[in-house]
Amino acid sequence: MAKRTPLLTASGITKSFGPVTIVDNFNLEVYPGEAIALTGRNGAGKSTILRLLIGADRPDEGRIEFEGLRMSETKPEIRRGMATVIDDLDFFPDLSVVEHLDLLARAHGVPDPEAIVDDILEEVQLVPQSGQLPGTLSSGQRRRLALATAFVRPRKLLVLDEPEQRLDVEGVAWLAARLKEERQRGLAIIMASHEPHLVDTVATRTVRLMGPKRQLDDEDADVADADTAADETEDAR
Amino acid sequence: MSKKSKKLIRAQANATPEDVATGATAASEVDAGEERTWTFTFLGDVEPEPVDEKALHTLMQQWRHGRASRTLGQVLGDAYFMIFSLVLIGAMVINLLLNSQHGAAGCNTTACQSGRTLLPWVLLAGTAALTLAAARIFGPVLASAAEGFWLMDAPVSRTRLLGGRLRSALGLAFGLAAVVAALVAALSGMTLLLGGAWTLAIALTAVAMIALAALEQTYERTAVLRVLQALFSVVAAAVVVWMVLVAASIVPLLTPAWMAEAPWVLAIVAGVVAVVCGVLAYRRLSQIRRARLLSGGSLVSGMQGAAFALDLGLARDILVERDAVARGHVKPTPGRGLGVQALIWRDLQRIARFPKPLLGLVAAALVPYAADALGLGSFMPFVTGLALLAAMVPFLGSMRVLSRTGGLARTMPFSTAEIRNATMVVPAVLALLWSVAVYPAVLGIAGGTSRTPLDALIVTVSIAAAGLLGAVRWQTAKQVDYSRPMMATNAGGIQPSLIFNLFRGIDVVVVVTAPLLLGAPIWVSPAIALVVYMLLRSGTSMEELQDEAKEQQKLAEAQRATASKEKIKVQRPTR
Predict the structure, then answer these.
(1) Average pLDDT, stretch A183-189?
(2) pLDDT reported for residue B17
């Protein structure tokens, strides 16, 4: 039986902001077909970990690798395999919704980009807004466009930061079903989420984060207890 | 303010830090765990009293002044360095004025006379066009978000509330236009009377444009303003062309007798327009919708934020975004090509969709001719490079978006160098076309320095590269990182990159064109441009290089530590 190779490996990741250690010796291996949900209270470090995993921020300590390559968000090989939807996604102010998706599909060399763009537009329910410029979209529509950017291109790993944000109930249900399907087709997913339905439907593993640790306040931090989480749970700080 | 409110505020002010941390103030007397009995307050069944808008404004001013933590004396005391600089710059300006007045006495060449005669006309038309553009963007009557929320919901007269804003806009336009016009009049060596007349005419024209824009704002119309703005822009450009043609002795300089009276006539006409439109606008101020007023106010807030960060790129981003929101919808066009070609095609399609920046490129092509006509001589490459920089910025929109945050670039399967190269293709082609248009000026046909065809070709390419790369630097420079160590100055801690932010782009034009100004061998400028291009395309900043070096150092230390452990292990005797 062939040995499973992790798609993404994070070992000994530490990140501090001033005296506060947000991420302390965090380890993670993500395999194809696996969906990992990062959960925890606001400020527990979910978004920080995601930013570190995709190379948007650099860890103080530790190493992150994607398909054996040292993580750097500017490496084309990594950009090709990893689709991300986090808060820093920007849009061209002068390109319409459909043009954004068309550009991304073409940039990734997707054959017949127009067909796939049309399908995804329909799926995210942005067909009526296809000619609109991003500045005029509502926050929910912008979120749908951001999610669509991840689906019109090839990907091996999908990294999502609270993808349920600003989606209506129907939208969250669609997203959960879509991500489950993606995972079953072999895509690896890492997501931070506060939405129990999404986590229950998609995640194969849940990592519950306990929150930041103050360097001068170690005793208090150690008292924090690990909550139980659904499925296979890891505790991490 | 009620007695209860005052009591609460006093209690808050006297609270100790511990009280504040635990929330133990007079305001929190009820325990959260207890079953609460709510008491509700309703307005009394009496008619509200009439509101005095001026008193409301005065009250807000008092609150603001009451919260000032420093006196004017303290602020001025800390700003002595700035005051000293202003005095120094003022002395330099006065010295420059005196010198130019002295030099103007010897203005007897055609180029000089054409410049002196026609420059006020360019300034007048240019001021009118710029004033209309600014008035359309900002309002000109505007209100802050706070005023919109707190005051405009109240039953107050909007006319009285906004009257001050209109007067401020008119006053600001008069002041700014007068200062610029007076400076230009003094620099071009006009007599006091003529200079005063032109200053008055130009300042009143600016006021008239603001008053007209305010009147149109009350009707929510912009068509007239757009037409006028285009008309004034064309007039300004036409006069510049005329100036160049006169300087090149292609057409004669005509100075009919009525031209001496023109500034007075213009001042009277502008004054009448300003008064009529101003009065009509004031009467209709209450008709302006709150959303329209707040939109200008929020733009000013955004601009202030960008100004504090000395970030002109951010200021432009705000304007571009606003323009896009106003447009709202476009007819989608299908993309072409795969990979980086798709990015290049989109840039081309953008120009077809938003062709207005091409006018700026055409105007930039006139600059070397005008510079030579005005006798700028060896400064022509620098001035021309700056003009091209300004014209190129709008064509690098996709590079800007792909550089300002990592999010969008991360979605593309390209390296930073590939993205920069791709987004530079269309602007580079435009810069090449611009080079063809300015080549005759660099050869020296407009009266400037004469060059051989080969030298002129190298100088033209160098200027084009300076303008293009300056615009690339302007669009791709990283925002100020306030988490980095600060630099101690007399005005407090300042980020070193904050100062350089203001000169980004211009520094590239200086570096590339300086050898041409200093008479260095002609190949030096293109060589510098090539080095600058290599640096800019890689997109590596000094901070990233430092981080990388730190990372390497850490790795080397870890390897050394491992090696030394192994060494000890080997040296240990075995039994």
Answers:
(1) 92
(2) 47
Report the alpha-carbon distance of residue A66 to residue B411 in Å, rounded.
Answer: 16
Q: What is the pLDDT of residue A237?
A: 38
Q: Which of residues 304-323 of B touch A (CB under 8 A)?
A: 320-321, 323
What pLDDT sits at residue A235?
A: 40
Whether B339 has its CB under 8 Å from any CB of chain A: the answer is: yes
* Residue B168 near residue B278, CB atoms below 8 Å: no
Partners of residue B406 in chain A, C-beta under 8 Å: 56, 73, 88
Instruction: Give me chain B's average pLDDT, please.
Output: 80
- Out of A105-109, A172-176, B95-99, B510-514, least confident range: B95-99
Interacting residues of B413 by C-beta distance below 8 A, sequence separation 6+: A76, A79, A80, A107, A108, A109
Instruction: Give backbone dihedrals phi and psi of B522, rounded to 5 degrees, phi first.
Output: -65, -20
B352 touches chain A (CB under 8 A): no
Is residue B274 over pLDDT 90?
A: yes
Please tell us whether the domain made up of A8-87+156-236 is placed in CATH 3.40.50.300. yes
B355 CB within 8 Å of a chain A CB:
no
* Share above pLDDT 70 across residues of chain B, in percent, rounded to a whole number: 78
Q: Buried (b) or exposed (e) across B171-195, using 16+ Cβ within 10 A?
A: eebbebbbebbbebbbbbbbeeebb
Query: What number is the average pLDDT over the span B373-399?
Result: 86
Average pLDDT, chain A: 85
Q: Do A180 and A201 meet the contact criterion of CB atoms below 8 Å apart?
A: yes
| Calpha distance B56→B164 (Å, rounded) | 13
3-state secondary structure chain A: CCCCCCCEEEEEEEEEECCEEEEEEEEEEECCCCEEEEECCCCCCHHHHHHHHCCCCCCCEEEEEECCEECCCCCHHHHHHEEEECCCCCCCCCCCHHHHHHHHHHHCCCCCHHHHHHHHHHHCCCCCCCCECHHHCCHHHHHHHHHHHHHCCCCCEEEEECCCCCCCHHHHHHHHHHHHHHHHCCCEEEEECCCHHHHHHHCCEEEEECCCEEHHHHHHHHHCCCCCCCCEEEEEC
* Partners of residue A92 in chain B, C-beta under 8 Å: 397-398, 401, 408
Q: What is the pLDDT of residue B145?
A: 81
Where do the domains of chain A lie? Answer: 8-87+156-236
